[in-house]
Amino acid sequence: RAKIEGRNRLCFFDPDIQAKQEERAKLEAALHSALVRNQFRIVFQPQIGTDDRVTGAEVLLRWEHPELGMVSPLEFIALAEETGLIIPIGLWVLKSACHQLRRWNNLSGWESFTLSVNISSRQLHQEDFIANVSEIILETGVSAKNLTLELTESAILKNVEDSIEKMNVLKARGLSFSMDDFGTGYSSLSYLKRLPVNELKIDQSFVRDLGIDLGDEVIVRTIIAMGQSLGLSVIAEGVETAFQHELVRGYGCHHFQGYLFGRPQDAKEFESNHFDQSSSLLFPNK
Ligand code: C2E
Ligand code: MG
Ligand code: MG
Ligand code: MG
User: Fold this and answer.
1) What is the DSSP letter of 60?
2) Rounded to the nearest 5 degrees, what angle is found at the Cα of 45, between the Cα atoms of 44 and 49?
3) What confidence category does residue 281 fall into, taking pLDDT thresholds of 50, 70 and 90?
4) Is residue 204 within 6 Å of ligand 1 at its C-beta?
5) How far apart are CA 203 and CA 205, in angstroms?
6) With a 6 A CB cut-off, is 175 part of the ligand 1 pocket?
């Protein structure tokens, strides 16, 4: 009896935990080979201005696994961070994004089109970060002013001094920074003033219940007011309905992103959905 209890207390014999550990180990092994096996894709989600035109896109990573199917970044980015695999994966994303950006900026009417690339905490605080970003910009021939890096508050807070220093160097080279998932962290106005960000990206959790949850309305209006008083651009993510769009636009938000304007799409789809060949103008897919 004592033996059974003792055994039950050992987590190694808990079939649930064991199954989870096996699954994680499998995912990690698969993630290790995903780059060389060419299983990653990038997709693009349009970003819209107040005149309803597409101004740019966010680059989002997709993993197409032969057996697991499409694996969501929500399932593997954290693992990639923990294992350090996010470094080579992140470089691949940035390089692929810049190659696409170069092609699009070369088209007439697309010269000021921007791409926003998500950068993880581990990437930002890596020693070679500035050198790697600079090299990719040089090698792909993009204009740095068309490239925005999205950082979360928590990534910045992991080492504020290192973040500020690196952001300043890259900003001097023409890059822009957007603070992703804004409002979910602890930013205060005084701390935000020190950060060389160009844009605040309102987290979609606050946009979702606009018109239903009064608290969210207060948060969204406050973020927009903060952005305006600091001279920063503000973009709302997760805009799914015309009603949400009307509200955030009414509060003074500058840019919008969400399923209302387009899902994340591959480069070909993005071109056919958002590039009007007759007028060489960009337009949202509404
Ligand atoms: P994020 O950067 O906040 O990206 C926004 C997420 O919201 C994306 O999910 C996007 O597909 C989704 N989304 C966009 N519009 C709507 C909408 O109207 N409604 C709803 N419900 N969702 C919407 P996705 O692509 O699954 O990415 C999830 C997260 O994974 C991203 O959140 C980002 O943190 C991370 N991620 C994605 N790609 C990369 C990458 O290349 N590098 C790094 N480090 N992280 C990435
Ligand atoms: Mg993002
Ligand atoms: Mg976001
Ligand atoms: Mg988010």
Assistant:
1) E
2) 130
3) very low
4) yes
5) 5
6) no
Ligand 1 atom closest to the CA of 237, numbered from 1: 15
Q: 285 falls in which pLDDT band (50, 70, 90)?
A: very low
60 alpha carbon to ligand 1 midpoint, in Å?
6
Cα of 182 vs centre of ligand 4, distance in Å, is 9
179, 233, 241, 156: which is closest to 207 by C-alpha?
241
Q: Which of 41, 62, 117, 118 to mutate to test the pocket of ligand 1 (most atoms within 8 A of CB)?
A: 118
Question: Which H or E run contains 278?
Answer: none
Residue 174 reports pLDDT greater than 90: yes
Quote the CA–CA distance of 88 and 21 in Å, as a whole number. 24
Distance 193 CA to ligand 2 centre (A): 21
The verdict on ipTM greater than 0.90 is yes
Task: Point out the ligand 1 atom lying closest to the alpha carbon of residue 264.
Answer: 11
- Distance, CA of 238 to CA of 205 (rounded, Å): 8
According to DSSP, the β-strands at 233-236 and 281-282 are unpaired
Nearby residues of 212 by Cβ (< 8 Å), 6 or more positions away: none
pLDDT attached to residue 193:
87
Residue of 42 and 285 predicted with greater confidence: 42
Q: Is 137 in the pocket of ligand 1 (CB under 6 A)?
A: no
Which residues lie closer than 8 Å to 4 by C-beta, 6 or more apart? none
Alpha-carbon Rg for the chain, nearest whole angstrom, is 21
Q: How far is the first Cα of the chain from the last one, in angstroms, to the nearest whole number?
A: 67
- Whole-angstrom Cα distance, residue 86 to residue 125? 12
**What confidence tens digit (pLDDT) does each residue in 231-250 have?**
999 999 999 999 999 999 99
